[in-house]
Design a protein that fits this description.
Layout lengths: L25 H16 L2 E9 L1 H14 L5 H15 L5 E3 L4 E3 L5 E3 L1 E3 L2 E3 L2 E2 L7 H16 L13 E5 L18 E5 L3 E5 L8 E13 L5 H16 L7
Parallel strand pairs: 4-8, 8-9
Antiparallel strand pairs: 1-11, 2-3, 4-7, 5-6, 9-11, 10-11
């Protein structure tokens, strides 16, 4: 049969909309180049899990009330991730250009928003540090990141990245992998949700957080990603283990 002729939409009228062009900072140019390359070159896949936060939030309040220890939810997320990576070392890996390699240490890059762009200072040896040390490190690194006072070795490297947008009211999102790392975890905020544990149980309200891991398929497969998230969920649900 003859081809249907294209439909004419008439002349496209361009409106004269004003705009202001701003020059990108050197950091934003580097970020743009690296993330564009990562998204184009790295075979991303995504796995997420819902984590109930109520036990962790109660634990946080208990630390403050009984021990005068103030930690953020993000500090607890970092510690849980570090222990999960210790338990599932295959997720704590990177692509060396021809093969996947496991890292000897658990050094977590934590995304921090600054006036000139996003930077990822590194909390080293997270699996071996206590919560107080992690809290101190994060405050120090984040503070100096925002004033441009980090040394290169404090933000270049890392074995795994966490980006948390929960404090901005974001429930869930997907992050671009920070090469050559094999994974990055995107963390959303907690939302009050009705849950049903089983057919026999009554509905209840719980605070649920979504954690989504973006993985380099050359480094981590779906089963390893699932094992990591199961371990992360376990530590978030058993917050007393974060003190050990």
């Amino acid at each position: 049969p003859p081809l249907t002729p294209p439909v004419s939409v008439g002349e496209v009228v361009m409106t004269d909309v004003g705009y202001e062009e701003t020059n990108a900072s050197g950091m934003r140019k580097v970020i743009s180049k690296r993330l564009t390359a990562s998204f184009a070159e790295v075979p991303h896949f995504y796995v997420d899990v819902e984590v109930e936060l109520d036990a962790l939030l109660a634990f946080r309040k208990e630390l403050k009330a009984n021990h005068e220890v103030a930690v953020s939810v993000n500090d607890l997320v970092i510690r849980s991730a570090g222990l999960a990576l210790r338990d599932v070392p295959e997720a704590n890996a990177f692509w060396n250009g021809s093969a996947a390699e496991l890292n000897d240490t658990v050094d977590i890059s934590v995304a921090v928003a600054t006036p000139t762009g996003l930077i990822t200072p590194i909390v080293q040896n997270v699996d071996k540090k206590g919560l107080v040390d992690i809290t101190t490190d994060v405050k120090d690194l984040a503070g100096r990141a925002k004033t441009g006072k980090l040394a290169p070795e404090e933000y270049q490297g890392g074995t795994f990245t966490i980006s948390n947008l929960g404090m901005f009211g974001i429930n869930q999102f997907s992050a671009v992998i920070n090469q050559p790392q094999g994974c990055i975890m995107a963390v959303g905020g907690g939302t009050r949700t009705v849950v049903v544990d089983s057919k026999e149980s009554e509905p209840r309200v719980a605070t649920i957080m979504t954690a989504r891991v973006s993985c380099d398929r050359r480094v981590v497969d779906e089963a390893i990603a699932a094992q990591y998230l199961q371990a992360f969920q376990f530590y978030m649900n058993e917050p007393q283990l974060l003190m050990m």
